[in-house]
Amino acid sequence: MRRAHSVVCAVTAVAAALVTGCTHGTDTRAATSAAQEAELREPTYVEELRLSDAQQRLIRRCMADQGFTYHVYRPLTPEEHHPVGYVQDDVAWAREHGYGSRIQAKADKARLGNPNITYRKSLSGKRRESYDTALDGGATARLISAKVPDGGTYSKQAGGCVGEAEEQLYGDLETWFAADKTATGLRARAMDAVLKDTRFTAAVKRWSACMQRAGHAYTDPAAAREAVRDQAQRLPEKQAFEAERKVSVSDAVCARETSLRTVAEEREAHHIDRLRGEYGDALDTVRRIQRDALARAERIADRHS
Asked: CB-side exposure of 227: number of CA atoms within 13 Å?
């Protein structure tokens, strides 16, 4: 189960189902509520890429104003950014990419060739220090902090062009950071609950039986991926990838046949919804901020297209 839009999509579906049999006035209010839920859904991975690209463009402009070069860099295609998560049921993607091992290798290689790293290394010592300060505020940059539901505290720098870009996208950084970290913590808590949820575990057993019939004896999708990774260390790369694709395709087919992803999303939504009484404001706040940031990202993309 990945971070992206599974939670709110499932919540919206459940809310829509509950309006059956209501009066016309109740239907109207429920439809309005469902529309509001849709507006406050979690971003898809494509939308997250759009936010990342917009932030990089803002950083590039800010750095140029201070006499430095900054490259907007995204080495992977949107398709390659497709999340696998706990389970994925896109058979065509699995047939092409397996579990994404080659994509991960490409990403690892790309990190080493990041043109921003190369540019920074080309600068003299003093100039490099100025670059770092311009980029993130350096050692004196202000810190913002956020407490999360499990009692921990997260902090991050909010200075330089990175901080300026985030502020232009998300508005007040303290509000955004606190709401975002709270939402992330709640998702983790909900996912832990899903793994113990009887409806989910029953779906996993159906998935495992399906995989057994396909010739793959795994108890759950995580076990399948781990076995594939272990096997890859003992096989030539081409042979390892073919084995990965074979298992991942069966995994995706069985996920579809058993509705494992649908069950996971519905149960995740259920467990998130149980937390809304205490943390609903934070969840709504982070979704509104993300929605507004996406609108700004669209305008930034239009100006730079």
From this structure: 15
Cα–Cα separations (whole angstroms), residue 187 to 176, 200, 218, 294: 16, 16, 26, 21
Q: What are 28-82's pLDDT values in tens digits?
A: 444 434 444 444 568 888 999 999 999 999 999 999 999 999 999 989 999 999 8
Answer whether residue 302 is part of any domain: no
Residues 6+ apart with CB under 8 A from 224: 211, 216, 218, 247, 248, 251
For the chain, where are the E strands, in sequence order? 143-147, 153-157
Q: What is the dihedral of CA 298, 282, 200, 31, to 10 degrees?
A: -70
Indicate the DSSP class of residue 41: P
Q: Residue 208 is inside which H or E element, if any?
A: helix 198-213
- Is 1 within a domain? no
Residue 304 covered by a domain: no
Is 301 among the domain residues? no
Q: Which two tokens stand for residue 95?
A: 């047939």
CA distance 157 to 140: 9
Number of domains in the chain: 1
Q: What is the pTM of this model?
A: 0.80
